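hey so i finally got around to running the thing on that chain from the lab meeting. sorry it took forever, my laptop kept dying and i had to restart like 3 times. anyway pasting the input first so we r on the same page abt which one it is
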Amino acid sequence: MPVGTQATVKSLSPGDLLAANAQMLLGNTYHLSQRPGAERIDRLGGLHRFMAWDGPILTDSGGFQVFSLADRARVDDDGVTFSSHLDGSRHRLTPERAMEIQALLGSDVAMAFDQLVDPHGAEVSAAMERTHRWAERSLAARGRPDQAVFGIVQGGVDPELRRTSVAAIAGMAFDGIAIGGLSVGESKAEMATTLAVVADALQGDPRPRYLMGVGSPIDFFTAVEHGVDLFDCVLPTRVARTGQVWSDAGRLNLRNAALQDDPSPIDAACACEACRNHSRAYLAHLFRAKELLAYRLATVHNVTWTLELMRRLRASLLDGSFDDLRHRVASAFARPAAAD
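ok and heres what got predicted. didnt touch it at all, straight out
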């Protein structure tokens, strides 16, 4: 799911996303409630109409901002009080308010409110227990029968806490199960071990599984191997704005002077607008000139390539080529960025 934090995937139009074969987008409860406001979006016809996107939308609950804006957040058992990153005003977010905001936005999938903390910190157990209580309150506050609700498994990198959290969240009437608290500082080995623990604990559970905040090509394979169905991450769009683009050959740094005379596309096999119409030399020029088109074209490419990788990954599960595809992608991305 490409991330549309502010009701837009940065620099891309809905048409760009359709051309890239995006199936679903993600919106941000905290940021949209701050600006332009959930009530305003509701008055204007809901998030789909507001951003002109007819496909599915998943909204997070604001739980990540409890972590990322920790210096502006005060947590208690009832909820979180934020000092706005925009103007310093005070805002209260509880499980009930998080669900109300998501109902007003009209997303297709709403997330239960959770508390994300450092996976190695002393607060992991207490935050997990609070997440379970907030999950029950989130379900009780569900306001739209047409909106699926996913619960979130926490517990850091502690296997026993993860098993405890799976038992609690899977025991509730959620429509899907999210795995939170990863890709926030733990090692790749710890992520893989944690995913294995969660997958084992979820054996036989038919509900979709969503790994929150993971968008690295190599990590996709580890997660899919453990039954993950959905991903979101700002990584493909964020690195694009720095000039890093992805391809079957690995990473390419468009800011490098060596590309100024390169007439080839980013990836000859890619069907995106950037690869069909423009050379590496042109994109290198745009980045050096700080032209806005650079960000759009690099982002179009990274989103298209990532979504195509996911399509190929799905196909590989059917034709038995999963291990071969994983080996090729891992080998390519293990190398330093080309032209660095």
